[in-house]
Amino acid sequence: MKNEPTAGKSATNAKTEDLQQYVSSGDGKNMTTNQGVKINDDANSLKSGERGATLLEDFILREKITHFDHERIPERIVHARGSAAHGFFELYEDLSRYTRAGFLTDTSRITPVFVRFSTVAGSRGSADLARDIRGFAVKFYTEEGVFDLVGNNTPVFFIQDAMKFPDIIHAVKPEPDREIPQAASAHDTFYDFISLAPEALHNHMWAMSDRAIPRSYRMMEGFGIHTFRLVNAQGEAHFVKFHWKPKLGVHSVTWDEAVKINGADPDFHRRDLWDAIEAGHYPEWELGLQIIPEADEHKYEFDLLDATKFLPEELVPVRTVGRLVLNRNPDNFFAETEQVAFHPGHIVPGIDFTNDPLLQGRLFSYTDTQLSRLGGPNFHEIPINRPLNPVYNNQRDAQMRMTIDKGKASYFPNTLGGGCPYLAKMAEGGFTSYEERIDGKKIRDRSTSFSDHFSQPALFFRSLTSWEKRHMINAYAFELGKCVHDHIKQRMLWLLAQINAELAQEVAMRLGLDIPNSIEKPVNQNIGADADPLKYEPVPAKNYLDKSEALSQGYRLSAGIEARKVAVLVAAGFNMDKFEKMQSYLTKRGVVMHLIAPHGGTVRCDKQMNHPVDAALMTTESVLYDAVYIPGGKASIEALKAEGKIIKFINEALKHCKAVAFDDEAQELWQLSAAKDFDGDEAIFLNGDPADIADALAKHRNWDREPLTAHIAV
Ligand code: HDD
Is 407 domain-assigned? Predict the structure, then answer.
């Protein structure tokens, strides 16, 4: 199946073509009932007289209302809020030395994918910029069946054993008495749990880092988290960790921005992904693999089966093996994005599991949840979930069965069906589980090789730039500051002190609390009733690696500025030449320029031409843009000076460390805003050269400005 990716809104691949058979449009057609009867009146029910009672006989009314009454399905128990897109995966090099998976060995293939990004804790209608881990789930429609890589945007997870998943989710979800707070971890039940389960600290630190408030889904890394196995045609295995590296770099907004974006545009990430794809700026990631020989299983200071640990890239480099491009928006949110069902247990020959106890539990949960979410065991027949290759087996019936299975034999072995469907030998592509030797006793326990809960969080903190550390300290201070119970905050401070003294002291200072020297109960209370607490106490932090730049967002800036947004503040009489010079330079590089004026409609420039206004000042906010540009033009600047919101708009951009450029007369606004306080700032421009703005956009923010912005009141 060679399927060249095509560009534009009509980008197709084998899966999007397959979906076309289910796509329906009423364009140019009569309206009908679900039974195909043409409808003559869709506005009035059938009544006994003009002002009389409505008749039960009205099958058109009954059908319409009944269907409406049942439109909703249960939202996902976690990751309810999300957005998705179609695209393709393309392989750079043949990896048959490691795996027999076709999409990882055949470089001529284009494998269709459907990718869904999500937040974890919030409901389906919650705002996009919640401080939260992001889901990064990829469904590959391979020639050998569906492979799902159901990962997150952090390389580790909160817990080590699936047994604790309901607990941590109950702790982070809104508190059950009042169902408050929505899509927020800053509350007592969450910290009560985290402070008693030190295994959760590591992923929690990632949740307090800038990763948890991304600028865009397009600017996030993705991680498969667990150690999986690659198995080649000879049955030989290697361990593997999966990574997605975004071409646009990894970037985030500030917390102040996140809070304001949630009000100004709760669909900020959803809109950003949709708009970028519609404009032809297709987001792209490279697939990276860390491949580990089986012989190295016990080589590291941590256990490869422990999902709260990453494998530092300094120990095993990430090998870039292919690219993922998202080039088509779904046609229907519900049918595709809502009904797509991912499952870490959807694997293809050449990939296999490990004994990671978190992964093992997930293998149960994902099918189980679809049974109530999608209503029964036939959810694999929903178009978005169907594999590209045909399905033949002896599973039958159940709610909403679409397939019409022919013949008498729905069992195997059989003679009445000619022995069909028959089995595939391994050489014919039949899946065979990796033969792993297992010796041991049946035991409900946790390996002590999982007990180092502090070394990697400490490594993570050490690896951050000063601005990332500052953001994390403030995030902890905010979240714990929202908690009511001091004993919970104090346990958290004690735990933070085990990771990094600076982190703990700075947070303690902001909370107005002291760090306790010890805590009364065992540190780890996440153990069995008869377990020996000493056996499960976390070991003190070790330093087996001083720093890992890959953990920081500060070292991997990108040159890509596609679909970045620049606010251009204008009023009647603005300088058209300067604006057009800026516009032509930046739009060629994919930047979106929005003309923002005190009113909607059009705005007249100094050449007496009318330009359409993209947003009236009252309908938009500074936080929705990556940079601000103010062209000159005396009349324009005079009018802007009369708008109180203009200075707020500029000052907010300055506070959030964005590029701001003032041309000619606009320098009066430089004087009136906080811009004049930042002498020599590398992202504040007077008579800005478009190339400088492009450069500043690529750097994302001038974080060096941040410590100097405390006085800006916005
Ligand atoms: Fe999960 C959904 C990622 C552990 C149980 N999970 C879900 C989604 C993502 C992840 C991205 C949303 C998929 C989509 O877009 O539809 N989950 C993870 C990662 C984990 C993880 C990276 C650890 C490494 N999950 C995990 C555990 C359990 C679950 C340990 C239960 C034992 N996850 C679920 C679920 C969900 C789900 C309840 C909700 C909706 C769904 O599956 O389809 O089954």
Answer: no
Whether 316 and 201 share a structural domain: yes
Can you tell me the distance from the alpha carbon of 159 to that of 492, in angstroms, rounded to the nearest whole number? 17
State the ipTM, two decimals: 0.99
Place of tokens 């946790």: 446
Residues 208 and 336 in one domain: yes
pLDDT of residue 3 exceeding 50, the answer is no
Distance CA 372, CA 265 (A): 32
Least confident of 27-41, 156-170, 274-288, 546-560: 546-560
pTM, entire model: 0.97
Query: From the CA of 107, how far away is ligand 1's center (Å)?
Result: 30
Pocket-forming residues, ligand 1, beta carbon under 6 Å: 76-79, 82, 116, 118, 135, 137, 150-152, 157, 162, 165, 225-226, 307, 340-342, 358, 361-362, 365-366, 369
Count: domains in the chain: 3
| Range of the structural domain that residue 285 is part of | 46-385
User: In this structure, which residue's CA is closest to atom 44 in ligand 1?
Assistant: 366
DSSP string covering 77-131, please? SSS-SEEEEEEEEEESS--TTT---GGGT-TT-EEEEEEEEEESSS-TTS-TT-S
Collapse the DSSP code of 336 into the 3-class scheme (helix H, G, I; strand E, B; otherwise coil) and give the result. helix
Q: Which residues are catalytic?
A: 79, 152
Check the annotation: does 76 bind a ligand.
yes
